[in-house]
């Protein structure tokens, strides 16, 4: 297992060429946020926007439209119950993030199944939170796409069948290979399983142990993968950055809020950008 270093930032975060526009930096489509968990998709969306994704559209329950827009006018919104619109927006995306605050009721399942039916092999699909729980509970067939799973240990237990106490590298890698994607197994020592290798994230702090922290990471993975070309590096850099910013803030804070992390992204990415 390789331990990540700051090098992953220089390998991934690019100095932007002058000759570029919003279309250059990818389209993220985020699906989630039922009436109970609107905050989750708002945090994921805000994290994608602050990561620098060029265009961001959020499909959520309409009860979340006003609150999302009032804090984040940069994002576009649509109703996740509208299957036709969901299909259109998924088709247009570079990266789709599904699951933060999606919930597990019949409407949530319909939205997830529509995403799975619509996404194509060239597209990146980040499967987080409730979407992981639904895949496990309903034994859903995964689509052919560039898949990235972001489970915490309990979600990984549901999806992989491996109890938390037995989540060792060999067992985890075996299930990752079956899933045919990248797995970000989140914990106090997050490990990332890819076809090329297994990585340990050395950054992170218990000050991060608060609701919405993973929703924020899912949005960042969305933003990074939509704009940086190497999928594996983009995922690794997002995981490293999320917790490295938390470490900085935890030097003077008892708890670090997800919204504080995302607001540091433009500054942190500026400090770590590099030429190819
Ligand atoms: N503000 C919001 O709207 C929030 C919405 N959320 C959404 O709520 C839905 C349910 O997700 P939850 O994760 O809360 O519920 P889950 O039921 O999926 O998992 C939480 C349970 O897993 C246990 N657990 C064991 N190991 C863990 C680990 N390493 N990390 C985290 N939990 C671990 C926890 O103790 C807890 O009992 C998701 O869609 C999620 O996105 C949450 O992210 C919380 C914030
Ligand atoms: N003690 C800890 N040390 C380091 N990172 C932590 C710790 N506790 C939680 N985290 C991080 O916080 C995030 C929690 O994700 P998740 O449980 O999905 O949150 P939520 O669904 O509430 O948004 C993960 O990135 C995890 O690595
Ligand atoms: Mg989560």
Automatic annotation (TrEMBL):
It catalyses: (6S)-NADPHX + ADP = AMP + phosphate + NADPH + H(+); (6S)-NADHX + ADP = AMP + phosphate + NADH + H(+). AMP binds at residues 186-190, 214. Residues 5-272 form the YjeF C-terminal domain. GO terms for biological process: metabolite repair; nicotinamide nucleotide metabolic process. Keywords: ATP-binding, Kinase, Lyase, NAD, NADP, Nucleotide-binding, Transferase. Its EC number is 4.2.1.136. Its cofactor is Mg(2+). It is an enzyme of class 4 (lyase). GO terms for molecular function: ADP-dependent NAD(P)H-hydrate dehydratase activity; ATP binding; kinase activity; NAD(P)HX epimerase activity. InterPro entries: Carbohydrate_kinase_pred_CS, CARKD, Ribokinase-like. It comes from the Bacteria. (6S)-NADPHX binds at residues 40, 101, 152, 215. Catalyzes the dehydration of the S-form of NAD(P)HX at the expense of ADP, which is converted to AMP. Together with NAD(P)HX epimerase, which catalyzes the epimerization of the S- and R-forms, the enzyme allows the repair of both epimers of NAD(P)HX, a damaged form of NAD(P)H that is a result of enzymatic or heat-dependent hydration. Homotetramer. HAMAP family: NADHX_dehydratase. Belongs to the NnrD/CARKD family. This is ADP-dependent (S)-NAD(P)H-hydrate dehydratase. It comes from Secundilactobacillus collinoides (Lactobacillus collinoides). The gene is nnrD.
């Amino acid at each position: 297992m390789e331990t990540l270093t700051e090098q992953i930032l220089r390998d991934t975060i690019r100095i932007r060429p002058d000759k570029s526009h919003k279309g250059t930096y990818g389209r993220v489509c985020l699906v989630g946020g039922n009436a109970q968990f609107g905050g989750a998709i708002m945090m994921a969306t805000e994290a994608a926007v602050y990561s620098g994704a060029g265009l961001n559209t959020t499909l959520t329950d309409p009860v979340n439209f006003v609150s999302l827009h009032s804090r984040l006018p940069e994002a576009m919104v649509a109703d996740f119950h509208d299957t036709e619109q969901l299909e259109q927006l998924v088709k247009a995306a570079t990266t789709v993030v599904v699951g933060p605050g999606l919930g597990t009721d019949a409407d949530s399942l319909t939205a997830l199944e529509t995403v799975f039916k619509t996404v194509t092999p060239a597209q990146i699909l980040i499967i987080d939170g409730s979407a992981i729980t639904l895949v496990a509970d309903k034994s859903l067939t995964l689509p052919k796409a560039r898949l990235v799973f972001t489970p915490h240990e309990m979600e990984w237990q549901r999806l992989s069948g491996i109890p938390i106490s037995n989540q060792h590298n060999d067992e985890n890698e075996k299930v990752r290979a079956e899933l045919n994607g990248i797995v970000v197994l989140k914990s106090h020592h997050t490990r990332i399983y890819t076809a090329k290798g297994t990585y340990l994230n050395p950054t992170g702090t218990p000050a991060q142990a608060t609701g919405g922290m993973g929703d924020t990471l899912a949005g960042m993975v969305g933003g990074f993968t939509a704009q940086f070309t190497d999928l594996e590096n983009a995922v690794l850099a997002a995981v490293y950055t999320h917790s490295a910013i938390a470490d900085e803030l935890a030097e003077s804070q008892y708890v670090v809020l997800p919204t504080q992390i995302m607001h540091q992204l433009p500054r942190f990415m500026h400090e770590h950008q590099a030429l190819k």
